[in-house]
């Protein structure tokens, strides 16, 4: 029985390393393409994506939380995007000590172009995976995320 457990353990470790390697390859390709085609970075793209999805903008702290980065990192990214005219910061109407960040009209248009091309890149990069395999892998990774969440903190419900 111990041999079976050791083999399963090795297989899970191999799975983790393959997930990490695939993620790193995908990120590397997307970073390069965003830099070459749009002269931007993946973190800036992520900020714009979060703001595009949020009606009325986000507070700096909410943006940091959604991006899973520090407030300091978010400030640096927002500063750069503000200089480019892609986002604007305004004092929050509900808390004068806080700022709300939102895409400008030119930022929304630029992000729309980038997002469409980005989606094509993702499809292209994953194009070697058959449709049925991609759907199956997506379901398995969703289940894995839920299992990881449950195992990381058993007192918390997994977020679907």
Could you describe the 3D structure shown?
This protein is mainly alpha-helical. It folds into two domains: 117 residues, Winged helix-like DNA-binding domain superfamily/Winged helix DNA-binding domain (Arc Repressor Mutant, subunit A, Orthogonal Bundle); 32 residues. It is 71% helix and 8% strand. It contains six helices and three strands, in the order H-H-E-H-H-E-E-H-H. It has a three-stranded antiparallel β-sheet with strand order 1-3-2. Helix 1 crosses helix 5, helix 2 crosses helix 5 and helix 3 packs across helix 4. The longest helix is centred in the first third of the chain and has 37 residues.
Short key terms for the protein model shown above:
160 residues; Arc Repressor Mutant, subunit A; three-stranded antiparallel β-sheet
What is the CATH superfamily classification of the largest domain? Winged helix-like DNA-binding domain superfamily/Winged helix DNA-binding domain
Residue fraction in strands: 5-15%
* Poorly predicted tracts of residues: none
Q: Averaged pLDDT, please?
A: 91
CATH architecture call of the largest domain: Orthogonal Bundle
Can you identify the CATH class of the largest domain? Mainly Alpha
**What is CATH's topology name of the largest domain?**
Arc Repressor Mutant, subunit A
Task: Tell me the Rg in angstroms.
Answer: 19 Å
Biggest sheet descriptor: 3 strands, antiparallel
| Helix-and-strand structural type | mainly alpha
Total of DSSP H or I helical runs spanning 4+ residues: 6
Biggest sheet strand line-up: 1-3-2
Terminal Cα span: 34 Å
* Count of discrete domains: 2
Q: Give the % helix.
A: over 70%
Number of E-type strands:
3
Overall body shape: globular
